[in-house]
Known about the structure:
This is Carboxypeptidase. With 551 residues, this protein is of the alpha/beta class. Helices cover 36% and strands 14% of the residues. The strands form two sheets. It has a ten-stranded mixed sheet with strand order 1-2-6-3-7-8-9-12-11-10, sandwiched between helices. Strands 4-5 form a two-stranded antiparallel ribbon. A hairpin with a 5-residue loop joins strand 4 and strand 5 (112-114).
Amino acid sequence: MRLSWFTCAVVGAVMAAPSYYKNEGDIPVLNAHKITQLPNFNDKRPIDFDQYAGRIPLSVDGVQLFYWLVESENDPKNDPLVLWLNGGPGCSSLAGMFTELGPFVVQGDLSVKRNTYAWNRKTNMLFLESPAGVGFSKPLLDPSHYNEEYTTDRAYEFLERFFDMYPTYQHRPFYIMGESYAGRYIPFLVHKLVTTPIGNVTLAGFAIGNPATDDKVDGNALMDYYYTHGMISRQNYQASVKACVGEEIRKCLSSHDQCSPDCSAALKAGIIEVDKQKLNPYNIYGDVCLLENGQANALHYPLHATAIIPRGDIGPCQDVFTKSYLQLNTVQRAIHADGDHVPWSDCNHNVTRLYTRSTSALQLYPRILASGLKALIYSGDADSVVNFIGTERWIADEGLNLTLEQEWEAWFGPDKQLAGYAQQYTNLTFKTVKGAGHMVAAVRPLHALFLFECFVFGTQACESFIYPSDGLELLTGETHQSAEYGFNPVGYRPGHVGYSPGGRISDTERLSRDGPPSGGAWLISGIGIVLLVVFILAHVQSFRRSTYMRL
């Protein structure tokens, strides 16, 4: 039977609209913001969730804030909603999306793969570029508008508009998370939501990674971190302690005019020892991207996130690839950031330069914590910029003076490896993440995912979830296989493990996806095989699998 053009149009419209948005919200706007195709996507694992992106206009100064909503892979109709904010000030949350915890990873050829450790597997993730002038949000504002109060008010208004536009998220658990200068953004926003609630928003908690919270306490921990991590000499550390009594280290590093000549000289000597241009202060054990290195002066302005960020398993050049990808015209059209071409960058240094920063967010915490929200502060212990020493101090005796309820203890990941350490205070949990840098999820993706889901769903729930397996688990003797993600030890190379619906990834699939190993790798593999055959022929005995792995 031939359908009429009218019937086809109706069916097409119904299919185009998200099923659970029928009769809710602004359907034309939702359809206009739906991402129907992601340029350069090339992965065996399909995109099996809906995405929406675009600018939401606000009521003042022509502000339009850009967002990217990634729905949960699990149950988008009922799963929690999490707002993610990167810091700066002036840095884009799309950087966090593509280089840390979002569903996609940009490759060197600007193709896009799925991220095995994406946080949207059980939650709806909302990435907001704030304030205006950052990323695709516009316009660049008058300098008087770049401060905590104005930024908070615009983010608050954005949430009002967003929840009206997407009523399906009303009255379900809502969390706010971020990192770095979000240590200011989030307490200011949460405080406003606590004191002036939005009627249809059910704020359940907040979490901040390596939070830039208090200039004095955070700053005065810098030289302690450098010395205890073998980054400066004992002589320089002692000279700094002697010369900088009563000084605020952060101010001295930012402007030598704000401290004594002796303190300035001692700190400068220490920084010269530390900063050899190839050091990444955001992850002292990680590599820097040699394609574009902006680290040379980073320690003089520690909160200005102008440099290449460590990417751990993802790779130190991920920022460069992401920037190039989001500058493509085809991408900007696909995510509804079209119009005038935007030279997207992970950080807008004009915003950073114009922003008037508060000196502390500590004064906001008593009211926030009294509200009963879940609160998590976590620190990658390889970050020297906003390090765990300063963070622990402002939580405890040099700031909030919270009551310690549970002593320092280890916590473990789903791979049974030590993931870090934790302390429980009244109404707040503090955790370190072992080996992670400033961007925790980029360097320790599995442990970050576990930390995140335990925070949102509770420890009992997250311990029952199935998590991705990787090469480290095989090498260390943990051999369980994920029901969702496969791992093939043959030809394993560090990076995101591919997806195979049937379990393990075959050699053919791996070669098709990654290409053959380098010539050197083939040579080493060939020698290894020959030696193994000779060894077997010489001894003529069976080997256990564990013995094989040791070879």
